Amino acid sequence: MLMSEKIDVSVIVPVYNAAKYLSQCLDSILHQTLISIEVICIDDGSTDNSLEILKQYQRRNPRLIVRAQKNQFAGIARNNGMKIARGKYLIFWDADDFFAPTALEKMFNKCERDNADICVCGGDKYYEEIDIKVSTDAYLNKKRIPEQIPFNKTTNPDHIINFSTVMIWNKMYRRSFVERNNLCFQDRRNGNDVFFSVCALFLADRITVVDENLVCYRIGRAGSLVSTLDCCPTSPLEAWVDVRNRLISLPDFPKRSFDNKVVWVIRHTFRNVKTWQSYSVLYDYLKNRGLFQLGIAE
Are strands 171-174 and 132-135 parallel, antiparallel or unpaired? Predict the structure, then answer.
C-alpha cells in the first residue's frame, strides 16, 4: 500500500509468544473484505518464532507492518502501534483470536453511517481444548442497549459501561476521537485495556453497534493474561481505580453502571486467581483500601 493511499482502518495486533496461533489470526485479518486497511503487528519480545512468522507474512503482504520491542506487555505494544497508525479508525485485535471475514467492513460501514466514535460488535467464545465455538451475549448484551442508536452515557446511563465487556477486541474507534481525548493503554501486565476501554465508552458522544458475532475469542490458552493473574492479582482493580479518578469529576458520571461493573469485576477476579496467597493479597487490598478507592465501601 502506498503512503498516499487512504486507509480506512488500522488493525493493531500485539504479539507475544503466539506462534501457534499467528497464521490463523493473520490469515483472518489479511483476507478481510475491507481492502483499504493496514495491519500493524508489534512483537513484544517474543521468545518463540513469532517475529519470524510476522516477517514472513510481511514479505508477502505490503499492508502488514512489523515492529519489535522488548517485553513491556500488550498495552505498550498497542500504544506504539497507535503512534504509527494512519487509518481513519483503529481496532485492536489479539494474536490468538480470529475474525469473521466481513468484520472490518461491517464495523467500518456502521461507523460511517452513524458518524460514530465507537462501534461495538458481538463475539463467540472458542474453547480450544475441546474445539467448540459457543455463542454468547457477554460481549454485546442487547437488553442493555437503548432503542435509539447511536447512544452515549446520557441516553444509556445505567448500562454505558456494562452493555459490553471492557475487552478491547470487539470495538472499533475513530482515531480522531482517541487522539482528541488523549486515550492510551496502561503498562499493566493484567487489565492494561481497562482504562482505555472504559474511558472511551464514557467520553464517546456516539456509540453504535453491529449486532453480529464477528470475533472468536480463544478461551483457556496456556500463558494468556487471565491465566497469569496470580502474578499481580490487584492490577485489574487498580486499573478501575484509575478509571474512577479520571472520570469521577466529570458531569454525568454513571455511578450506578460503574458500581455494578466493579462489583462484577471483583467477583470475576476472585474466581480467576488460583492460589491462596493471591486470594489473600486481593482480599487484603480490597479490605484496606481498594473498596474505598473504588467508591463502593458502603
Answer: unpaired
Cell of 258: 460503574
Pairing type for strands 37-44 and 64-69 reads parallel
Is residue 232 within 8 A of residue 191, CB to CB? The reply is no
12 or 252, greater pLDDT: 12
The DSSP secondary structure of 93-153, one letter per residue, reads --TT-EE-TTHHHHHHHHHHHHT-SEEEEEEEEEETTTTEEEE-SSS--GGGS-SSSSB-T
Cα separation values, 46 from 51, 95, 298, Å: 7, 12, 44
DSSP string, 44-104: ES-SSSHHHHHHHHHHH-TTEEEEEE-S--HHHHHHHHHHH--SSEEEE--TT-EE-TTHH
138 CB contacts (<8 Å, ≥6 apart)? 123, 125, 165
C-alpha cell at 276: 491462596
Question: Are the C-beta atoms of 73 and 188 separated by less than 8 Å?
Answer: yes
Q: Once rounded to an integer, what is the mean pLDDT over residues 23-45?
A: 97
Nearest to 94 by CA among 178, 233, 193, 2: 193
267's CB contacts (< 8 A; 6+ apart) are none
Q: Which residue has better confidence, 184 or 229?
A: 184
Judge whether 25 and 106 are in contact, CB under 8 Å.
no
Task: Report the pLDDT value the prediction gives residue 207, as an integer from 0 to 100.
Answer: 98
More confident residue, 214 or 5: 214
Nearest to 167 by CA among 120, 103, 209: 120
Please, which residues bridge with residue 10 across strands?
A: 38, 90
Indicate the pTM of the whole model. 0.92
